[in-house]
Amino acid sequence: MMDSSTILARCPETSIRGKPPWSIIVLVELASEVWRKSRHFNDWKLDAAGFVRRRGADWTFDAAGFVQAVKNLRGSGKASVPSFDHAVGDPVPDAINVCEENRITLVEGNYLLLDIAPWNELRDIFDETWHITCNDLDVQMARVERRHMATGNSAELAAQRVNGNDRPNAELVEQHARHADVIITSIQI
């Protein structure tokens, strides 16, 4: 388990002598989830390829837009990025403003370590990459299935979504985890 002291020790450039770390570090989280293509994304090729059924797979994201935003943020320290409205199920453009005062940007997402373009451009931008893995994919997928049922899906539909989308996505993520600088194994509590 890592605490803030461990994380800060890995980021010595953020320490200012005589000030507590929490008084000088402003953290912003940039989630790749918000770069999903809109449900209203009207491209018959994507629909024919199973866009709706596979929503959440790496190719259903605006990966090029995400990578460009991360590049812009790295270069200027500023960016305007979307958030995600779970009630609607779609991104909200330009909802989050990242500014130079945000000294640390934590970028999280399933596909950040992929060898697939344009995702593979991210490794040259990040200072460090961490991957949190679950040591038992079946346990992980059982959690996802329960989450699907908690939102009102039948057990049958939840199992279909896990086997047809969530498991293949998780397997793809794990295949590319070797590119992480640090791999942390999640434990069940």
Describe this structure in words.
InterPro entries: P-loop_NTPase. With 189 residues, the chain is α/β, with parallel strands linked by helices. The chain folds into two domains: 1-128, P-loop containing nucleotide triphosphate hydrolases (Rossmann fold); 130-189, no CATH class. 32% of the residues lie in helices and 19% in strands. It has five helices and six strands; from the N terminus they run αβααββββααβ. A two-stranded parallel ribbon has the order 1-4. The chain has a two-stranded antiparallel ribbon with strand order 2-3. A hairpin with a 4-residue loop joins strand 2 and strand 3. Helix 4 (137-150) crosses helix 5 (155-175). The N and C termini lie close together (12 Å).
Identify the strand order in the major beta sheet.
Answer: 1-4
What distance lies between the first and last C-alpha atoms, to the nearest angstrom? 12 Å
The total of beta strands comes to 6
Shape: globular
> What portion of the residues fall into strands of 2 or more residues?
15-25%
CATH class annotation of the largest domain: Alpha Beta
Largest sheet: 2 strands, parallel
Count the DSSP helices.
5
Q: Uncertain regions: pLDDT < 50 for 5+ in a row?
A: 1-27
| Count of the domains | 2
Summing up helix and strand content along with how strands pair, one would put the structural category as: alpha/beta
SSE pattern, N- to C-terminal: HEHHEEEEHHE
Q: Architecture of the largest domain in CATH?
A: 3-Layer(aba) Sandwich
Residues in helices, as a percent range: 25-40%
Give the overall average pLDDT.
Answer: 78
Which radius of gyration do the C-alpha atoms yield?
A: 18 Å
**CATH topology of the largest domain, which one?**
Rossmann fold
